[in-house]
Amino acid sequence: MSVRTALRTVIPVVVLGVCLSGCSLFSSTPEPGASAAGRPSASAEAADSGAGTPGGDAGEPAPTLVRDAFAGLQATLDSTCTPGAGDCAYVLGRVNDELDRLDQAMKADPQGPDHFKEPVAWIAGLRTTLGEDVSAPNLEKHRDELVGTRDRVNTWMQDHPEDYR
To answer: Which has the closest alpha carbon to 155: 31, 70, 41?
Structure first.
């Protein structure tokens, strides 16, 4: 293996490791207000971002909440995991959190939840399916519903670009 090939392999791994070292992903116990995936829960993020108030904390209009939440959901589109292999807990937890965040942003949007009637209904259906149990085993059990809801919401949002641009 040449030095150039080795550097092409090692440098991205080192950069990724440095970026991840600051993440709470390595924490064994989540902070208060954090989800099982180690990141702030949707409710904590919504509270921090001012969801439910028309202007948010920074005086930004509420539509940015939908745009930002949708961007977070889109970031999960390329995330994959192997069922039963133990690597799905983070991925499915993140999809669940991003759907919660988007749901809250849509409900707080000045256009009102009726504007986002279909995605809000799909997420509500998922919440009924999951119940109160957002543990990794339950998310894996309902993986198809979770990923399917994410994909349906993504498709709906892609058909309504005025809602996130």
So the answer is: 70
